[in-house]
Specification:
By secondary structure, the chain is mainly β. Among the domains are: 135 residues, Immunoglobulin-like, CATH 2.60.40.420; 136 residues, Sandwich (Immunoglobulin-like), CATH 2.60.40.420. Helices cover 2% and strands 41% of the residues. Strands 1, 22, 23, 25, 27 and 29 form a 6-stranded mixed beta sheet that branches. A 6-stranded mixed beta sheet has the order 2-13-21-20-15-18, with no helix packed on it. Bound molecules: copper (II) ion (CU). The site of copper (II) ion has 5 residues, from loops. The site of copper (II) ion (CU) has 5 residues, from loops.
């Protein structure tokens, strides 16, 4: 069963004057469609792993080709997407901590692209951002090569025109295993996304007004399939490595009737497992979760994304089903022991450098987006996002030195949440709106709630170069909410 889109436009737009104004005057609820319900079906639940082309131990060589491909996302629903190797998500890259990973990449897209290895601590030259690499032209090739130092759940995606390129399907999982992985019945990667489709089930047009809250889709994809069913052994301990690859959607995940046992964050395993009722996963973020599949024989269990208000009317939308777990009629298996202690993480010491990073938004008239002629007033204006008053790429890089522990205060001056991502380094959150999170964890992505401040500490290890930090609502990043950190020897 499907429901029509609700594309409510702000009525206040027609009253705006002047070159720039506060976004607080905007109506809420603009360009946020309701999710189309799609019947559950068997889909290709687990993304295929990329074959390792290099027989040498401790070396993983993968071939990736970005190209336009037809992709089926639900029975009989096929879209033209941009893919890695014709797959959505792209092939899962698997390595062990300490391995060398070599990716032979060919760009067969109609435009330039790069690959960024989100969360992997790579040398700056391999980070796949325009600050360190000229985008790889259409038809060109490039080889990325780096050592993966940390175990964890990471992902890869372009870092040029990322708002459009990621939405079109360019993303994949990157799993690095370590020596302390807990024994579980299954270990699956779950890449979450949403697509904005039109009434003919093709990718909806890219409209500058989507930039306000980010392009939120109306079809939720789990590993490239709408509402898939995954078989689980009853009583089994199932590990799900969640990755939020959506441009803008916040997934507030719950599995009714089940407790979730979180064992990992962006940067790998936690010091100890923790039971939670739900899990907020913001764009770019990852979480590792264990679930004991309880319930009756043949019972279907629905992973749901609960409503979440990240500002501008986003909280008005109902809960949405993400995917379904199902077990058969067999007798329950014996549940493996649920791990308690995992991997110790030492808390970073007091910082010697303090920084304040202010996230800001405003509205500019006569934007350069070039879309829309005539009727729509919305085509004459576009939201502008900035950090400390600077709109990237017109931003001065921040200068920093090796081996210094810094404390960053990310101050959200806006009326909506922004997911903040730092490249090259992992950080530890020390307070959210003044409250200690009570968990020592490695992260590279963290939600900054509307009008709140999040503080984290980061040790800038010996890894010279230019590193990006930005909002991971990709429309915000591409419209200026991005900056650079220049790390050098003291
Ligand atoms: Cu943002």
């Amino acid at each position: 069963m499907t429901r029509p889109l609700r594309l409510a436009l702000a009525t206040a737009i027609t009253t705006l004057t002047g070159a720039c104004m506060d976004m607080g005057n905007m109506d809420d609820g603009m360009m946020i469609p309701e999710v189309i319900e799609v019947d559950a079906s068997e889909g290709p639940f687990q993304p295929t792993a990329a074959p390792d082309l290099d027989p040498a131990p401790n070396v993983v060589e993968v071939a990736l080709e970005a190209k336009v491909s037809d992709i089926e996302i639900a029975p009989g629903r096929t879209l033209s997407m941009w893919t890695y190797n014709g797959q959505l998500p792209g092939p899962r890259i698997e390595a062990r901590a300490g391995d060398t990973v070599r990716v032979r990449f060919k760009n067969s897209l109609p435009e330039a692209t790069t690959i960024h290895w989100h969360g992997v601590r790579v040398p700056a030259a391999m980070d796949g951002v325009p600050a360190v690499q000229s985008p790889i032209a259409a038809g060109a090739e490039f080889t990325y090569e780096f050592v993966v130092p940390d175990a964890g759940t990471f992902w890869y995606h372009p870092h040029v025109r990322s708002d459009e390129q990621v939405e079109r399907g360019l993303y994949g999982a990157f799993v690095v295993r370590g020596d302390a992985e807990p024994a579980t019945t299954t270990d699956r990667t779950v890449v979450l996304d949403d697509l904005l489709i039109d009434s003919s089930w093709q990718l909806g047009e890219f409209d500058p007004m989507q930039a306000m809250v980010g392009r939120q889709g109306n079809v939720i994809l789990t590993n490239g399939w709408a509402h898939p069913i995954v078989e689980v052994a009853r009583g089994g301990l199932h590990r799900f490595r969640f990755i939020n690859a959506a441009n803008a959607r916040y997934f507030r995940l719950a599995l009714p009737g089940h407790r979730l046992i979180q064992i990992g964050t962006d940067g790998g395993l936690l010091p100890a497992s923790r039971e939670v009722d739900e899990l907020l996963l913001v764009p770019g973020e990852r979480a590792d979760v264990l679930v004991v599949a309880t319930g009756e024989a043949n019972e279907a269990m629905e992973w749901t994304s609960l409503r979440y208000d990240r500002g501008h009317g986003t909280g008005d939308l109902p809960d949405a089903v993400v995917f379904q777990m199902k077990h058969g009629s067999d007798a329950p298996i014996t549940t493996p022991a649920i791990p308690d202690a995992l991997v110790p993480i030492a808390a970073l010491p007091e910082a010697t450098v303090q920084r304040e990073i202010k996230l800001e938004e405003s509205m500019a008239m006569g934007g350069d987006h070039g879309a829309g002629h005539g009727s729509s007033m919305s085509s004459d204006m576009a939201p502008v996002f900035s950090i400390n008053g600077q709109v990237y790429p017109d931003a001065t890089p921040l200068a920093a030195s090796f081996e210094i522990v810094e404390e960053w205060s990310i101050v959200n001056t806006t009326e909506m949440d922004h997911p903040f991502h730092l490249h090259g380094f992992r950080f530890q959150v020390v307070s959210v709106d003044g409250v200690d999170p009570g968990v020592v964890a490695w992260r590279d992505s963290i939600n900054i709630p509307a009008e709140k401040t999040v503080k984290f500490r980061v040790r800038l290890e010996d890894n010279a170069g230019t590193w990006m930090f930005h909002c991971h609502i990709l429309e915000h990043a591409e419209r200026g909410m991005m900056g650079e950190l220049e790390v050098a020897a003291p």
